[in-house]
Each structure stands twice: as C-alpha cells, then as structure tokens.
Backbone:
C-alpha cells in the first residue's frame, strides 16, 4: 500500500515515516508540508492512503481533503491533528475522511488503522 504524508512538522513527518516503515507492505510515496505540493504529489502518484494534518502552514487540510476525494475518492484518508474538536471531526468525516485521530492521544493507533486498510475484504460465501 502506498502512503502519502501531509504534515508541516518535520519532527512529526519523521515519526510517521518510522511508524510506517514498521508495517510490511506499506511504502511512503511522498511527504509534503504544504497544500499545493501535497495535492500535486497525491494526484500524480499511485497513492492508496494519506495521513493528513488539518492545520498546515500554507492552507487548510480540510479543503485539501475535499479536493482529493473529488478527484480520487478511493484514496483512504486519516486525519491526524492537534485540533481535534468535535466540529473539526464532523467536518472531516462529512468531507470524506475515513478516520480522525488526535496527535496527542491517538498517535499509536495509526499503525493499526493503516494495517487494517491493507487487509483485503473477505469474500462472501453463498451457501
């Protein structure tokens, strides 16, 4: 699974890359800290999933989420933010986010979420 990281903190970028490297079959295909390069990077790559911060130095991650889901709705997106208000959660989920995490309390859940996205859906058996 190809993952794109959209995060403006280099410290968090590096931490996420280390987390992802521990998941077999997960590859980081791009890292961006700003909205424009992230959009171009995602649209022009074979991205399957994105870790996306809401507050980016050059723009709004929520708007980026909407634009990506318009052009590539199949991409899975997890929001990872320090601004985990209920209002932000609702807006992100309504815009198409597949999951929503708080950086300060939910960071460790990233691996489980990404790993679950790698699992193929089990075929339905008809008896």
Residues:
């Amino acid at each position: 699974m190809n993952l794109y990281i959209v995060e403006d903190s280099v410290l968090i970028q590096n931490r996420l890359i280390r987390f992802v490297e521990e998941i077999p079959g997960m590859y980081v295909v791009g890292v961006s800290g700003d909205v424009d390069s992230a959009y171009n990077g995602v649209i022009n790559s074979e991205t399957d999933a994105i870790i996306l911060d809401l507050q980016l130095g050059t723009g709004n991650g929520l708007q980026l989420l909407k634009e990506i889901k318009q052009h590539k709705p199949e991409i899975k997106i997890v929001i990872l933010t320090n601004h985990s208000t209920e209002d932000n959660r609702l807006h992100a989920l309504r815009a198409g986010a597949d999951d929503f995490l708080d950086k300060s309390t939910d960071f460790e859940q990233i691996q489980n979420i990404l790993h679950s996205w790698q699992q193929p859906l089990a075929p339905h058996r008809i008896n």
